[in-house]
Structure formats: C-alpha cells, structure tokens
Amino acid sequence: MRVNFTVNGRPQEADDVWEGESLLYVLRERLGLPGSKNACEQGECGSCTVRLDGVPVCSCLVAAGQVQDRDVVTVEGLADYAKQRDRVTSGGTALDEARQWAARGTDSQTGEGGELSPIQRAFIDAGAVQCGFCTPGLLVAADEMLERNPDPSDADIREALSGNLCRCTGYEKIMDAVRLAAARQGEEV
Amino acid sequence: MPSPTLGFARAGGAPSGTPTKITQGSQTRGGIGESTLRPDGTLKVTGEFAYSSDMWHEDMLWGHILRSTVAHAEIVSLDTGEALATPGVYAVMTYDDLPTEVRTYGLEIQDTPVLAHGKVRHHGEPVAIVAADHPETARRAAAKIKVEYRELPVITDEASATAPDAVLVHENRDDHHIGHVPHPNIVHRQPIVRGDVSAARERADVVVEGEYCFGIQDQAFLGPESGLAVPDEDGGVHLYIATQWLHSDLRQIAPVLGLPEDKVRMTLAGVGGAFGGREDLSMQIHACLLALRTGKPVKIVYNRFESFFGHVHRHPARLYYEHGATRDGKLTHVACRIVLDGGAYASASPAVVGNASSLGIGPYVVDDVDIEAIALYTNNPPCGAMRGFGAVQACFAYEAQMDKVAKELGMDPVEFRQRNAMEQGTIMPTGQPVDSPAPVAELLRRVKAMPLPPERQWESSEGADVRQLPGGLSNTTHGEGVVRGIGYAVGIKNVGFSEGFDDYSTAKVRMEVLAGEPVATVHTAMAEVGQGGVTVHAQIARTELGVTQVTIRPADTQVGSAGSTSASRQTYVTGGAVKNACELVRERVLELGRRKFGTYHPAWATAELLLEDGKVVTDGGEVLATVADVLEDEVVEIEAEWRHRRTEPFDLRTGQGNGHVQYSFAAHRAVVEVDTELGLVKVIELACAQDVGKALNPLSVIGQIQGGTAQGLGVAVMEEIIVDPKTAKVRNPSFTDYLIPTILDTPTIPVDVLELADDHAPYGLRGIGEAPTLSSTPAVLAAIRNATGLELNRTPVRPEHLTGK
Question: Domain named Aldehyde oxidase/xanthine dehydrogenase a/b hammerhead: which ranges (chain B) (predicted)?
C-alpha cells in the first residue's frame, strides 16, 4: 500500500508498504529517518517515541496505515519544531522555511553546525547522553512535557518520562537535563 | 533547583615547587580533569548518530536466525526446502553449509557451534539462518524450516550436573580446564586457600553461616544486537558491527569464514550500550556467512525477544558462606563456596570463576580463608560477562554475612566493616599485596556522613503524593504500613584482565599542521559503547600535545587491538596507550624542533620542553617556537602498543598469585521505604562514595557511578530472567516481563568521589565502571532487611518474599 503523511513538516510518500509494517519501520527503513530507535518494538522502552498529531506515541505500536494524512514529528525534526513553537502558537510550516531545512549543512563527524532545541542542548550539557540509544525518545517525550508544563516538579518529570527506559545513566543526568532545559526556558520568558 | 551532591575530594597537597614551573598540558584547555562534553553528543541528540541497527546499503538483504524451541535435544531431522522456495528468500544455511572445518567459536574455549550440529544445548540456540529481501519474509521463511527434536533430560543445577548418571553437556571436552575439574559438567574450579581456617574457627566467638541465591540478570542494553556485512570484491567481507572488542570478534569470525584476518574488515558501528553482553559474538558470523553466500550486503537486527536469547547473561549463583569473628569485632576466618551456573557454553565462565574466588571475601582483612568457586555447564541460558563479572554475586553474599555477624556481635554494621576494612598493604587471599590506596573505611565513613533524605517525603498540604510512595500511582497506600530502612555495603572489583592475560592496547596518534593550526588525530580500535572513551582520548591528546583540535577516528581493525571495553579497563589501558603514543609523538616533534631551531636558543638543549597551546615552551613558560613552524608540512604519526603491569595466573590448587592489575572500591548507603503489607519497595536514595584515583572527566565519572548503581538496584528488586526448572526454557524474554528500573523506580543517587592516586596507573586513575554495580545491590537488600526484619537470602527480592511469612 501507499501511505501519505507529513514528517517534520514535510509531506512524505511511502510506497510498497506491507500492511504489517509499523510507523517506526517506515520512518527508519523507507524514509531514511533512523533517529527513532528500535530497542524493544513492543511499546515498553519508549526509544521510538514520536509525536503523532502532537501526542507522544511509541511508533513501533502504530501501524503505518494509521498515519495516513497525519502529522509526525521525530527527533530529526525536534530543533525545527521547537523553533516553530517559539514563533507561532499554531498553524503549519511555511514552505520557504521548510526549504531552508535541507539547505543547512552539518559536519558529518560531529554534527556541529546544526541548530539544537533547548532540550537537545541541555541533554548534552548535563551529561545525559551516554550510549544515546534512549536519547531520541526521551528528547521527544521531555520536549512534549515541557511544552505542557514549563515548570515541572521532579515528580512531574519522573511521571512524564516513566515510559522511557535508559540503561546507562541511572536517570540522574536526565533529570538534570530536563531541569536545566526548564530553567533556561524560564530565563528566556 | 535540587540536584545530587557532587563532591570531589583530593588527597595530597597541591603540586608545590617554583611558581614559574609549568607541567605538560597545564596551559591547554579541554585536557584531562575537565568535564569536556562528548564529541558524539550532537549526533546522538539529533538522531544522526549511526548505530549498528541503522546501517543501510543499496540492495541489502535481511538476515534472520531460527532458534531452538527446546533446551536440550538431538536434532533428528532438518528440512529447509519450503523456506528456500519462499519468494524473496535468497539463502538458507544450516550446519552442513558452513564453509570450513572450523564450526565453533568462543572467547576462551571454542565450544559454541556457529549453527547447531545434531544437538541443541539451550533454549534459543541458533539452528539455521535465512536471508531475504524483507525482514518479515526472512522471519516467515525461517518459521517454515521443519526441525524435529528428540528431547534429552535437562541439566539445570549443581545436583543434576554432577549426579553420577548425569548427561554430559559437552561429551568430548579437550579444553585446558578438563584436567583439574572434578566433573566434566564443571567448566572451571578455582580454590583459594590461605592460613588455617580450622584453627581460626577455634578462636572465633561467633560463627555465622548463610546460603544465598542470586538470580540471572540481563545486561538489557537498549541497542539490539545488529550489524551489516558487505561482501568485498576480493572475496572478503566488511562488517559494520556493535561490539566490545573488534579484534576478539575478528579472531573468532575469520576462521569460520575460511578467510585470512586481513580479508575480514571490521568497523565499529554505533553501540547502544554493552555492559558485558557484547563480549561474545552474536550475529557477526551469521551476517558474514549470508553476505558471502548471496554476494549481497546482509543486515541482521535482533528484536528484544531474540536479544534475550542472543547474548550471555550474568551468572546466577548459589553461595555458601561461613564467617567467624571475635567478640571485639575482628574477623577470624571466612570459608565459602560459590557455585556459578555458566549455562550451555563456556563464554567467560573461567574468568568469572577467577574473579568470584579471588574477590570472594570482599575488601576485608582475613588471614585464614578457604574459598572455592566453580562454574557449571548446564542447559540453562549461557552466562558470561556482565558489569561486575563474578564480583557482584560474591559481594551480595559477603555483605549480607557482614551484617549478620555485626548483628550477632551487637555491633554497628558500618563500624564492624571499618574494623576489618582492608587498606594499602593488606594481603589478598591470593597472597597479592594491595599496593595502592584502598580507602575502604573512608568510603564507608563518607557515605554514612552524607545527609539522610527527610522522612515521610510523600506528605504535603494536599495529602499524600502517592508518586513518592511504594506502589506509586497504583495508589496502594497513603503511608499506612510503610516502614523505612537503611543499609550499607562496600565492594571490591579488579580492573583490567587478570590472571596473566596479555592485556595490552594500541593507539595511533598523528600530529600535523592544518590551516596554520596544529591538529592531533587519535586512532584506536576501542569500542565506544557509551562510556565516554572518545571524550577522554581527546582530553588526553590535548593535555599531552598541547593542542585544542583533536580528531577521533572511527574505531576499526586498521589499527592494532585496543582490548575489550570491559573490566573497567579502557580509560586505564587504551587511555594509557593514547598517552604513551602522544608522548612518543611529542618527543618526535621536540626532536624536529631541536634539529631545526636548536642553534638559535640554548634552552632547546638545556630546558625541559613542553607543548602548550600550539607552541614549544620551556617548563619556565618561555616560548621557543610554534608547532606550526616546527612541523611545517611534516606529519608525525606513531602507532604503539602499551601494557600495564604483568599479572600471573592463580595456582590451581592454592589460588595464590599476583593475579590482578588494580582494585576498585565503592560503598553505598541505601534508604528504602517498604509497604510491609503488600511487599512493595520504594528505594528513596542510593548514595555512593567511590575512589576513582583521578577523574579524567568528572561529569562522565559521575555518570558511570550513577548508571552502575542503577543496574545494581535493578537486580536487587526486579531484574531476573526466569527459567523453568523442568524444561530449562526462558519464560520472560521481553521488557514486559523482564523489568529494568524506570525513572520512577530509580532514586536520587548522590555521589561522593574520592581521588587517591594509584602511582602505577596513568595519571593515577582507577577503573571505575563496575565497582558501583557491586555494592548497590547488597545495600538495598540490607535496607529492606532493616525495614522488615526478614532474612532475605536471595536477590531480586519480590513482594511475596516480604509478605509470605
């Protein structure tokens, strides 16, 4: 089957999709967006978390056919999504702006040169990234929480991120990163 | 903003001397001792970092592995016809299709079949492999392979393994341990005998015995086993793989493929955690076989279910201990027997036995010991390396014993430990003197001195915040029946590969001038698995070469072996190799400078010269030349091996020998709250104090300690692979049924870091990754015992252990 949907503000078309394929598989293997991770493929670890029409979901549990005509945001689009959120409160992305995304170059060795969202910056600064496999899902989940709740308590953070497993950090630096992003966000306002 | 305590304390005064004197690297930013950020951090937060499961190639196929559905059976027949006839399938391979006579592999003992040969020895053993154009096609084709099994009796524990009529898991052993084991179903046995336990027992005022059980823990790294094998035009293959040790993989892969090692090229793909679970091969050979058979690139990615079968686990153990002590709180003797279940294949079992025995009594001074550790061959899941490696199981048991003895003596458990704590100069049960700082009593003092979390934190003006209580949002209590407990533990772990292993590493360092600036390039085969070795290598190069720009090249087999990312060894050994290669490069650069400019300034010949901030300077700070002027177009590149102090094997009868390179110590204090009616545990805080020798990157050091602590917490209260004792089949291979701590289960982990230099190690550093995993578990158990008054001799603790009285 063919699936048409929007990923990170850009219309995408996936062809020859087998009915059993998940959104995660289509993103990773058909659209060249492997940022969403495949750690359990049974909805337990949160590594594949994306936003579907704004709601965080485990993309491994969403059948590809379910996303027809819907909006998906992945970790690859998080920086632009955050920028867009700062600028406007609702509405889509201007075409001119979408064109600029592709034009922006980054260093393939280090990734330097690209812009980061506040939560991405905070994860690096706080040391919340070790192996990094859980990071994309945590970033999408944490970004969504901070959008809803700009001044979260520790208990709020833990509750919001309880669907995302991390095996390296013991979560302490992740807590630090989310607190840091919230604090920086607060300073800007 | 609440944040954990991040204490750093250094012993010894600041370097003294003339104020003008500078040391190498002290003037260059981003060197050792700074919390520089990960070079791969940006790629990892943008989703661009290429993990092994993200590899993609034009025209690639997907591999899938058919695994045994039973634990122990003869394969009566195997029919691949229907699978091969499935549209989209390119190849199906079984044992009979293997290209050479080398059809087994293994870390130490080559006992693991690449594909089952007439027999399977554990649930989930690879039987056949399939390559197809879609992963689901490969999976469905594999399901069409018909395998007829004739089941054999299963060996599941020591009694069934060593019974007189026991079936042998491996019939014709010819490995080098068979000569000294009491039974062919025992992989390895290591006794350690020192002093006279019988005589010491007579001096004891109290003797305490205990039997303990440690469940099977899984590494549960999040990045599944995966990789991409690409056939090369010269008949070789290029494998992009997540592993802990490229060269160890290479040594095992090439003979099975029938290729010389230089035709099997390996590049490290992004590794999503390891924790010991990637020491053994998983899908490496299978992907290469299918790629060479089909002539197409083949990718294999395990799902989580398969991952539980696709790597070895932490050995489950039964441990029997006897401790004696005098009335004044001095240990008289320890006798213990540690039975590790290695499962169907040897993996790292012999080395795990060596660790469990040699570290079996913990960080204490005991002159009279009688220790025995064995690993069994059974039909349970194969077990091997996991963070802590044999020392974890022992620590769980000896720390429970220390509490029991203290209680028997009516003594404070921390004070009792401190009275018996080892220190620099203590002789280990192996006869090896501890010749660097061993601040065991001090770590306990520090962890005890940390402020306790306030009581009844769940109470607020709006009633109980159930998120802070055992049971959490399940809303099972508002504080009724909740009791707090506090427990302590301390542990000892060896650093590096032990028992005479040639544990070297290699680094290639290059220095050149690009766009007028000196640039260093570091190339090693070290597997970056998340620990931050790449960060530290760049810091070392900045310090040793006085440059700011450092490029870390991807790890591959084009450079010599770095050894394994295991045993808390990489910063020590590959860090040492990078330091050594940098020093050689620096000498060469200075030599070039002397040749070029030596006649212009006498300091070139008389002063100690350093590289700082892109310049050649004297130790008094005088600038002699820029590195750019010295090098011009010249490139200095040196590859060199580096070795730590030699170790020696343990005597097979007495266990005596200087077997270990270095020891690492951590202590924990756990604070738990237990809902005693429902048996639910909430760990409130897990404080840790650890000596790290020298923190090369303080931020990463804290991250390692907190991560290791959380894994110890997991096996204390939730993590266990459940194996059916009747069938030896795994019952919970998923994250639905095998639980690892979430952010709700994990408490705050304040860390107090001590830096007492080990003069034998580069920069005085101490390997740190594993020690915090040891003491975390027994501290939590001690706290639960303290809260409930129960004995609790097994881990993990489940609700029924706390309520079923």
Answer: 46-153
Q: Are residues B697 and B634 in the same domain?
A: no
pLDDT digits (tens, 9 = 90+) for A3-55: 999 999 999 999 999 999 999 999 999 999 999 999 999 999 999 999 999 99
Both B469 and B613 in one domain: the answer is no
Same domain, B130 and B259: yes
Is the C-alpha dihedral spanning B254, B255, B256, B260 positive or negative?
positive
Q: Quick one: closest CA in A to B305, which residue?
A: A40
Q: Which amino acid is at B4?
A: P
What's the total number of domains in chain A?
Answer: 1
CA distance B79 to B90: 16
Distances (CA, A) of B768 to A92, A120, B696: 49, 27, 11
Tell me whether residues A76 and B532 touch, CB distance under 8 A: no
As a whole number of angstroms, the distance between CA B735 and CA B739 comes to 6
Q: Which amino acid is at B604?
A: W
> Which amino acid does the sequence have at B662?
Q
Nearest to A165 among B303, B532, B742 (CB): B742
CATH assignment of the domain containing B591: 3.30.365.10
User: Do B586 and B600 touch, CB atoms closer than 8 A?
Assistant: no
Secondary structure E strands in B25-84: 61-67, 73-79
For residue B722, give both structure tokens: 């459940």
Cα A49 from Cα A35, distance rounded (Å): 10
Shortest CA distance to B379 belongs to which of B187, B161, B699, B602?
B161
pLDDT confidence of residue A91: 52
B376 forms beta bridges with B186, B341
- Cis ω before B796 (30° cut-off from 0): yes
Q: Chain A contacts of B37, Cβ < 8 Å?
A: 124-125, 127
Burial class (CB in 10 A: 0-12, 13-18, 19+), B805: exposed
Name the token pair of A136: 């994309």
* pLDDT (tens digit per residue) in A85-140: 887 544 555 555 555 544 455 565 566 667 899 999 999 999 999 999 999 999 99
- Token pair in block for residue B54: 């993200």
* Residue span of the structural domain in which B109 resides: 52-152+225-301
Distance CA B213, CA B191 (A): 20
Residues of chain B with pLDDT below 50 are 1-6, 10-18
Three-state secondary structure call for residue B642: strand
Would you put residue B215 in left (φ > 0), alpha (ψ -120 to 50) or beta? beta
Within a domain: A128: yes
- As a whole number of angstroms, the distance between CA B17 and CA B514 comes to 36
The domain that contains B250 carries what CATH number? 3.90.1170.50
Q: Please tell me whether residue B469 adopts helix, strand or coil conformation.
A: coil
Look at chain B and report how many structural domains it folds into. Answer: 3
Q: Which residue of B has its CA nearest to A156?
A: B467
**For residue A188, pLDDT beyond 80:** no
CA–CA dist B631, B523 (Å, integer): 20
- Write phi, then psi, for B315 (nearest 5 degrees): -60, 125
CA A25 to chain centre: 16
Query: Does some domain include residue B379?
Result: no
Which of A17, A44, A18, A47 lies closest to A34, judged by CA?
Answer: A47
Alpha-carbon A76 to chain mean position: 7
Residues in chain B within 8 Å Cβ distance of A38: 53, 224, 301, 303
Q: Which of residues 513-532 of B touch A (CB under 8 A)?
A: 529-532
Helix (H, G, I), strand (E, B) or coil at B693: coil
Same domain, B130 and B273: yes
Read out DSSP for A18-56? -TT-BHHHIIIIISS-TTS--S-SSSSS-TTEEEETTEE
Q: What is the pLDDT of residue A94?
A: 56
Q: Please say which residue of B250, B277, B301 terminates a domain.
A: B301
- Residues of B with CB below 8 A from A24's CB? none
